[in-house]
Amino acid sequence: MDARTVEQITEWDSRPFSGGFEALRDFSDADFSGAVKAGGAWLFMLNGRVVGIFDGNIESFEDANGEAYEAPHPSLPLLFSMQERGGKTQAKYYTNDTPLKEASSTLSSNKFTGYVELSENVLSGDYYVVYHGGRSMNVAYVGESEKLLTGDEAFQRANDEVGIYEVVAADVDIIDIPEPETPPEPEPEPTPTPTESQPSESDAESGSKSESNSVPVADSPPEADDDSAASPPNDGQPAPSSQPSQASTPQTPPQTTASESEPTPETEPTQKQDSPRRATPEAKREQKQSQSSQPTQSSQSSDSAGETKTPASFSDEQQWRETTTIPSLDPEKSSSSKSRDTGVKQRRTTRQSPQQQGQNRNSRGAPASASNRTKELEAELAARAEKIEALQTELNSVEVERDELKQERDRLQNELDQLRTELETVRQNSPGATAERQITPEQAFTETNLFVRYGSKGKGTLADAAAGEASRETIESNLKLEHHTQFDVDGVAVDGKEFETFLHKSMEYQFVSWLVVDLLYEILETGHQRGLKDLFEAIQEIDRAELQGTLTAETEEGEERELSFDVILRDRMGNPLVVANINDSRDPATGEMLGSLVDASSDVASASNELSAAFQVTKSFFEPAALETTEDATSGGLLTREKRESFVKLSRKRGYHLCLVESRNGEFHLTVPEL
After folding, report:
1. Backbone phi and psi for residue 484, each to the nearest 5 degrees, phi listed first
2. At what angle do helices 624-634 and 591-607 cross, to 10 degrees?
3. What is the pLDDT of residue 286?
4. E strands, 95-172, where?
């Protein structure tokens, strides 16, 4: 059993049980929903039916003692059983493209068996819709406290969320509890009363035949209206009879064939005896199984795709297993558009043109006036003439503005030519002008990798520093950032500078140098090892830095796309640990920059568990919109219990730290989170 599942079950109300199969039969009679543990085996029950056994089999519970845990909602044992058994993911959908309500309605109408899990890219919690033969139940774990929500409340919360949900088809095995080997109890024979008339030989013979072909029902209630007929039996006690006392006297059976006279458990009342006996547990279970074998009605509300109401018992088990694949959720395949077009055509046919309306008015005795029509046309002509004059004036103004813009364009072109000439002169006189080859900054970065190396691992490493066993001076003297290029650096210049000079003065190189040494000690000295735990541990594993690199992530449609970052720090296996974007201009970092970083980093974190942090580095400062974007991405709500600082939570198990860094006078300062 999954450890997390066991932890959740053990929080339910529990009580000890003993007696093995007999105790399980008592649970079945009581419509128990929950889990039963005996030794190392677990058994799940839903409405008295065994829906799964794990780490053992049904024989593990024979004569066994253990603990019974009653589920707070019947959906939980069914969901846990499906998850423990394992299912097949049929599809994934984005809620904005295919709403959960629409998908749930389609799955229910197609008698789907399995569950829907909405948790990916959802920060508020995990949401589930469990289906069995099309009937659905809803459950959710919300917030850091994992508050349990069920029923319509759980579905409404899930339907309002934005994220990716997964449709999983899962089987359910209904396991019978072995019955005790006891001889059947003989049926008592009715004794005629003194007032009973003796039947004739033919009547007696016919009666005996009918009696031999009938199906006895122990302590069934008398036939009533539809509502009373659908109610469960009254614990084996005979229901109050509205018939006169002669109902206790056996009646002569009608002379009909067995096929015509055989009663059904739902419709034929049984005759009460003078001394009714209490139904045995075996009879109650037999009656319960007889009722559960009848298909139950289950309907989905036309205006809500929420939980199907009270699945009191399972219907035909073979039917539950018929459908484990999901139907198409493509709205193009529905007939709703056709019906809408038909409705529009019907409405259009009821409208009349202005000419028809005028004819109708004339037919009612309101003749049009020729003089009035002439005045209307003259007024319309004058209005059009005024509009033409206004448009001509506007055209003249636009032509004047066009000529002015042409002159401005020519002036700017002349200035551009002069600047290009000056730049070429400066390049020819710069130190890098003597280089054999000039390359662009982009080429220099994309073809360069930085490696974290030590003079001697015995003299102190980042792991030693994290453990408090090496000083900053020791690490700075022992650690080296070595570069490796895909080109020969001899005789190469970048932006008029020698390659190594360009590289060491770049913000990318200086940021990596600050991250692996200075930031590690800042976290140690300020006591933020716990709040920045994922980042603190990742720094110790950094092996190399890729400049202006790319990572791949899978889209919702299953296609791969490339995501670009200015710096990607990896471990020895190449897994991305930290990503960063650099703003090397005097303009402040904007909210759009932070939004792009969050989107790309979230996609990487969803595909790779190793990503610990994403950095936005700026040479100036952060706009308020950038800070608001950061707060929205890392906020867990008013009641959040998240202990990790500035943490973007993608699900209960995935997330990363979002950090903002300002570079001033060649030094880097972590502004979010504050140390």
Report:
1. -130, 130
2. 30
3. 52
4. 114-120, 125-132, 135-142, 147-150, 164-169
DSSP class of residue 286?
H
Ranges under pLDDT 70 in the chain: 182-369, 427-436, 556, 636-642
For residue 616, the model assigns a pLDDT of 96
Residue with tokens 């009363």: 193
Strands (E), 510-642: 544-554, 560-570, 576-583, 613-618
Give me the sheet containing 492-494, strands edge to edge.
437-439, 492-494, 497-498
Rounded to the nearest 5°, which phi and psi values hold at 294?
Answer: -85, 135
- State the pLDDT at residue 652: 77
Residue 430 neighbours by CB under 8 Å, 6+ apart: 496, 497
Instruction: Identify whether the C-beta of residue 79 lies closer than 8 Å to the C-beta of residue 130.
Output: yes
Q: Tell me, what's the pLDDT at 118?
A: 94
What is the distance, to the nearest Å, from the Cα of residue 640 to the centroid of all Cα atoms in its chain?
20
Q: Are 320 and 133 in contact (CB under 8 A)?
A: yes
Distance in angstroms (rounded) separating the CA atoms of residues 388 and 617:
57
Instruction: Give the per-residue pLDDT at 571.
Output: 94
pLDDT for position 89:
92
Q: What's the per-residue H, E or C state across 634-669?
A: HCCCCCCCCCCCCEEECCCCCEEEEEEEEEECCEEE
C-beta separation of 659 from 670 below 8 A: yes
Residue 398 tokens read as 């636009």
Alpha-carbon distances of 512 from 151, 445, 451, 602, rounded to whole Å? 51, 13, 10, 22
Tell me if the bond preceding 281 is cis, omega within 30° of 0.
no
CA distances (Å), origin 204, targets 192, 195, 255, 494: 13, 17, 10, 115
- Residues written for the chain: 675
Residue ranges covered by each domain of the chain? 1-181+281-292+301-332, 403-431, 441-672
List the structure tokens of 168: 């999983």
Cβ proximity of 173 and 665 under 8 Å: no
In 302-452, alpha helices (H): 317-320, 336-349, 354-363, 370-429, 441-446
Q: What amino acid is encoded at 607 in this protein?
A: A
What does the pLDDT read at residue 249? 36
SS (H, E, C) 58-113: HHHHCCCCEEEEECCCCHHHHHHHHHHHCCEEEEEEECCCCCHHHHHHHHHHCCCC
Question: 312, 74 in Cβ contact below 8 A?
Answer: no
Q: What is the reported pTM?
A: 0.40
113 to 118, 132, 283, 297, 317: CA distances (angstroms): 17, 5, 31, 16, 11
For residue 457, what is the DSSP state? G
